[in-house]
Amino acid sequence: MSDENDPDPSGGMDHARLLETLAGAEATRLKALAEMLLPLLPAPEVLKSGTGLVMLPMRDTVQGTDFHLGEVLVAEAHLRLPSGIEGYGMVTGRDLERAMAMAVVDAAAAEGVQPEAIARFLHAEAARIAAADRDILRAVEATRVEMETF
Amino acid sequence: MAYVATRGGERAIAQSERLYREGLGPIDRDRVAAVADALPWLVDRVMGEASLYEPELAALALAQTGGDLYEAVLLLRAWRTTQPRLAIARPVTQDRLFTHRRISAAFKDIPGGQILGPTLDYSHRILATEVLEGRPLTPAPVQKADRPAPPHHPSLAAWQKAQGLVADPAPEEVAPEAIPDLTREPLLFPAPRAHRLQGLARADSGGVLALGYSAMRGHGNAHPTVNELRLAEAELRVPHPRGTVFSAGRVKVSQAEVAAKEGGTRIRLGFAATLGWNEVKVIAAATLDLNAPGAAKGTPTEEEFFLYHTEPVEASGFCIHFKLPHYVTFQSALDAMRDANARKTQPPADPLLRCENTLGGSGGRSAPGAPHAPAHPAKETTE
Fold first, then answer.
1. Non-local CB neighbours of B113 within 8 Å, separated by 6+ positions
2. I need a surface site. Which of A96, B130, B256, B272 has the fewest CB within 10 A?
């Protein structure tokens, strides 16, 4: 297993950014995109579709020990196109359709199906996610304090 | 060993469950959504103790149990066993946390600054009784800053290590699959640090607070100061089949470091973290971690003591098992008491008989009045 993030032509995003954007995309819009792409893809073989647990380790800041913080429930989907290209989706929560939609878009992007539509979707969702984060962080910044000792 | 049968119990048990559930009323999606919306801190607490992050399921467990936290944690821990483990995520590091709150009580000028985040730390706590008179408590909106806070903040402990203020042991590189895991291995002592921190992460908040508080009040060997406290979101970074590592979403986490002076030249730190936002728990748990080295056997800050006694499902389960039938055990204790009382009221036995009983009585019950007759009831055992 590698930490290398493959470049991907879809949307000009690397593969990790594409996957993170899909995982964070608004569920209804993601499913609508997958519905649009699915008829354009050769019939995929579904390898996995289900919920399960991902253990989340954390690194202790005192001694640098990795330990398990707890498990996170996720929905996972994995499919393969006749060309051998695989699509994969994993999202936090229990929404199997959302995970499958992510896998469909991942496979379509790798297969080169509707790249403009996928790129538009990715850019719109990435901008929405960034705006939501920025909104949170503006509220967080409002609580910054400067401490003084008298 | 003896067993007690309950006659007519099936109907009574069914009706008792109905009585319990009738008191809660119908549980539907709207109620679960209302619990999730209205009680996010409680949902977080339950997820941390259940060691399972899924807010909707935690809200369901709370709704289904009417807010009985131990029952809710038990439901979630049990449900968790129905799910396969799909992966182990990449370890979360402090400097990659999407931070909402980050404060230090030890250093006022920490790199990255102090951010209060969502808190009532400096607010009056006044019960809003006007709500009951029809005047809703509507929060004023946050007046947001023009520019956003940085999403990530540097680690204070890393800065302290660089300054030589804190010991900097070389971290042990362990593959995620090789990290010790309490859900798959027994807890043995002395515990690996990974087991201790995992045990504290899933510990009962109240139990950890009670033991941590005892250390804070003087029953430990070090008085804590909060070195750094964070409420944040951590990315769940998982591998794609093609090898790409990506975030499948964020989960809320809390973490605390507490500090105490070590000797004359250094600071000693304790650490704890948990799923969800629960800062009382992580401060108390970090205090236990800080105090554990060198703690005397059987004291609240000894590792074995606090890990065994703050496991919520085992502790609550053992506690409530005492309300289940113990009639035979207790009857045995009563018999022993009656025997003892009867011996007290009988005249002294013939000295010759007493001698015979003493010489020949091994393996059998002593005669009344025998000098070595048991003076205490038998130790109670579970039926």
1. A144, A146
2. B130
Which residues of chain A neighbour B116 with C-beta distances below 8 Å? 143-145
Q: Are residues B208 and B338 in the same domain?
A: no
Tokens of B300: 């609240």
B172 domain-assigned: no
pLDDT at B97 over 80: yes
B205 lies in the same domain as B102? yes
Q: B124 lies in a domain?
A: no
The residue range of the domain holding A52 is 10-141
Question: Tens digit of pLDDT for each residue in B317-347?
Answer: 999 999 988 888 888 889 999 999 999 888 7
Structure tokens, B109: 């000028």
What ipTM is given for this predicted complex?
A: 0.93
pTM here is 0.88
Q: Does B271 touch chain A (CB under 8 A)?
A: yes
> What does the pLDDT read at residue B353?
57
What 3-state DSSP class applies to B53? strand
Question: CB–CB of B253 and A72 under 8 A?
Answer: no
Residue B266 lies in a domain: yes
Q: Tell me: the pLDDT tens digits for A31-51? A: 999 999 999 999 999 999 999
> Which SS3 state, helix, strand or coil, does residue B344 take?
helix
Contact at 8 Å (CB) between A111 and A83? yes
Per the structure, how many domains does chain B have? Answer: 3
Closest among B178, B173, B181 to B198, alpha carbons compared: B181
Q: Give the percent of chain B with pLDDT over 90.
A: 75
Q: Which domain holds residue B204?
A: 94-119+149-167+185-319
What is the tally of structural domains in chain A?
A: 1
